[in-house]
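Dig into these lines:

——
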Amino acid sequence: MRVTAYVLTVLAKLLSGASVRWVDCQPDPCQRVYFANHTSHLDALVLWSSLPKEVRAVTRPVAARDYWEKNAIRRHIAKTFHALLIDRDNIKVHQSPVEAMLREMGNAYSLIVFPEGGRNVGEDLGEFKSGIYYLAKKRPDLEFVPVYMDNLNRILPRGEFLPVPLLSCITIGAPIWLETGEPKTEFLRRAREAVRRLKDR
């Protein structure tokens, strides 16, 4: 499994050519939630692979079960990068995605989440779903770190199977926290704006 993880990491870096910039934030294995824009099925793998080894070891990308369990190869890849697979279609009250994330991260793991939900094909960020707010409400101690991923949609365009090697850029910004008494709409607006601002950095 370690060999496969190493190979995947190298391949993801080669395909994306990703340069990583940490802006007002430093790599740290402390518990965090990295939240990023979402334009490609490769987003989770590329972002995870771009983290330093010691951070990557304690970070789990949250990904769509229906995509990553579609065949044996995808299942193996998802298992290799320790993805937390979420069922987007069969959501139950007592088995919500937020509860699953909280349970799986415990007091050790960080998460990579994509608050837009599905992939966004537009130029601007889509509206953020409420899951990230409820994560912050349940775990106000966590750092929520914004990430902007540029050019990933061109590496694996929607509907394509084979990736095309291109240069991309990942910008990781300053963490935010849920403020005391902050309404859901305001936190989601602030989180979305934190990612959007990184686009121009």
Summary: The CA atoms of residues 32 and 143 lie 5 Å apart. Residues 2-198 form a domain with the Glycerol-3-phosphate (1)-acyltransferase fold (CATH 3.40.1130.10). The chain is about 40% helix and 15% strand. The longest strand covers residues 143-150.
